[in-house]
Amino acid sequence: MTELSPAATAAAIGTTGIKTPGTTPDKAPRGYLPGLAAVNFGVFLALLTPVLVSMAFKVQHITSSAAEATAQLGLVMGVGALFALIANPLAGRLSDRTTSRWGMRRPWVLGGSLVALGGFALIGAATSIWVVLIAWCLVQTAMNAVLAAANATLPDQVPVSGRGKVSGIVGLTTPLGILGGSFLVNFLSDDFSRFFVPALIATVLAVLFVLVLKDRRLDEKPAQRFTIGQFFGSFVFNPRKHPDFGWTWLTKFLVMFGYAGIATFLPFYLTEKFGLDEQAAIATILVANLASMVAMAISGPVGGILSDRIGKRRPFVSIAGVIMVVGLVVLAFAPSVPVVLVAQAIIGLGAGSFFSVDLALATQVLPNPADTAKDLGVLNIANALPQSIAPAIAPAIIAFGATTALGGYTVYYLFGALVALAGAVLVYRIKGVK
Asked: Membrane-crossing residues (predicted)?
């Protein structure tokens, strides 16, 4: 990556930003960092509020029974997550090839946010589960396009020496988006506003980012055509040739499977097991998310620092996974709402350490240093895929559990704990890292 001097940077930047591909300024342009953080916060606010709270109640309002609501929620979330899984890398690759006079990234950020705003409005007004499903897939596609294009500006706009700080600040937007959404819906009493208001905030923040972004411009189309084979081929790896990378992928997938199924069905769990009304459940989810985020904020840095000092990764990943398993078991048998909050804090404590140390471990088993971005994309699939599979199979597990003495949601959370435990154990199949 070639860095420009101030004089060269001034010559390269016009009304649409940096024109020369593969170059970055000596420092990030003024307003870029808060703009990037704002657009990420908006995306997570709009996307995670439905995942955590509002989609469950929306589906409940347009279905006729608890069993139907559970099944339809799993369908909507599972299919939508598949669209997100495909849209994010695809939109990122296409933005790399965009030759708009307005820049490479800005059309995707603005266009995606406007399409998503319409999709969220459609969900809020929908009276049919099929309309909700189609609109949610549209929203997932559009918002992941925004996220991919916005974050692709990082190497465009920030020199290598400053990217760690920017990435750290942007990383805070996920828990802030979760807390912001949980807080916001406490003041929104109808389905339409619960979907539209967070989306409107996200759109406003996306527009502000577009206005401050000095976008890179690609004046000539890439010589090589982009094919479907190239897209799917870039996310393929050989687990037999790179077994440590394969075990890392599987470990991440299994632990994330246990983690991914918690949030989506928590509203139903609270209303059905503890008899909370809708507003009480929303308030409880806010406190639960706050407890989880505080625990993550503590364990993440501590786990990473201790792992660096001791020089070992696997024990920390394994212990973090076991802590999450304990939290899931406590959640499964929680006799009261306060115990649910404790369980969420325990899960957050394990998750914070797992996410920080697991990423460090992953960087040590990448198959090819020249393909770092591609290989990290493969690992991202292990993060995203459970968010599709877990909600899709959850209704069947909950229905089966309802026929037992334990109850549907108890069996579901115990199943998640068992899967996560398998991940915590299999991390020791990785041989190239201590």
From this structure: 36-57, 69-87, 108-127, 133-154, 166-189, 195-213, 249-270, 282-304, 316-334, 340-363, 384-405, 411-430
Residue 56 domain boundaries? 15-217
Could you tell me if residue 227 is inside a domain?
no
DSSP percent split of the chain into helix, strand, coil, nearest 5: 80, 0, 20
pLDDT tens column, 127-183: 999 999 999 999 999 998 898 888 777 777 777 666 656 655 666 677 788 888 888
376 & 271 share domain: yes
Same structural domain for residues 402 and 286? yes
How far is 204 from 207, CA to CA, in rounded Å? 5
Residue 431: inside a domain = yes
Farthest CA pair distance, the chain: 73
Other beta carbons within 10 Å of 193: 16
Q: Which two tokens stand for residue 115?
A: 């399409």
- The CATH code of the domain that includes 310 is 1.20.1250.20
Closest CA to 346 of 335, 330, 359: 330
- List alpha helices for 18-172, DSSP H: 32-49, 55-61, 66-96, 106-125, 129-151, 153-157, 163-171
Q: 259 and 113, same structural domain?
A: no
Q: Where are the alpha helices (DSSP H) in 14-65?
A: 32-49, 55-61
Q: Note the pTM of the prediction, 2 decimals.
A: 0.73
Is the alpha carbon torsion for 385, 317, 344, 187 positive or negative? Answer: negative
Enclosing H/E stretch for 24: strand 23-24
Q: Which residues of the chain have pLDDT under 70?
A: 1-26, 160-172, 219-220, 222-224, 226, 230-231, 233-237, 359-360, 363, 366, 368-377, 432-433
Number of domains in the chain: 2
